Amino acid sequence: MQSIMFAQVDAQPDIRVTKWDLGRLQHLLSSHATTWSWRAVEFLVRELMRAHIVDEESIPGNIVTMRSRVMISENDGGLDQVVTLAYPSDRDFYNDALSVLTPVGAALIGLSEGQSITYPGPDGRLKTLTVLKILSQPERKVEADQELPQHAS
Questions:
Q1: What is the pLDDT along the chain (153 residues), one digit of tens a residue?
Q2: 124 backbone φψ class: left, alpha, beta (φ>0; ψ -120 to 50)
Q3: Which of 117, 112, 116 is nearest to 140 (CA)?
């Protein structure tokens, strides 16, 4: 049974993660991994290992990065919801925060609009998550703002 679960989870969509997000997530995992759900931590580590790592300036606007606000659907047509993918320490800053160190949060990182992913829920049962729409991707906007030319004083 367990090999069937991993076979289904292994056939996952391509994902992209920025170098910045990867560095922060690796630091988070090395500092706090033992205080979170082992299933979520293990899944996040596997997701980061298989991700295509890209520069911040080359990440498309339709990819879920940290602090992205997205509309998702769980389990093939379940109730749609809007969440902001957040670091555990940032959860208080967003009304709709979803920690990246939860099974759903770990599954969400790096997906693009329209992609679905199967992941093990807290009880070990497989669930499906679909990204319906990226509502905002603030880290992409910050990078674009930093590239604006400086005016001479």
A1: 444 344 344 468 999 999 999 999 999 888 866 776 677 788 899 999 999 999 988 899 999 999 999 999 988 666 899 999 999 888 889 999 999 988 899 999 999 999 999 988 777 788 899 999 999 998 665 544 444 344 343
A2: left
A3: 112
CA 110, 92, 118 angle in degrees (round to 5)?
A: 30
State the Cα–Cα distance between residues 57 and 140, nearest whole angstrom.
7
Alpha carbon distance 75, 9 (integer Å): 14
How far is residue 127's CA from residue 122's CA, in Å, rounded to a whole number?
10
Residue 90 in contact with residue 97, Cβ under 8 Å? Answer: yes
- DSSP letters for 78-89: --EEEEEEE-GG
Q: In what side-by-side order are the strands of the sheet with 97-99?
A: 97-99, 80-86, 69-74, 126-136, 116-120
What is the residue type of 4? I
Nearest to 72 by CA among 111, 19, 100: 111
pTM given for the model: 0.80
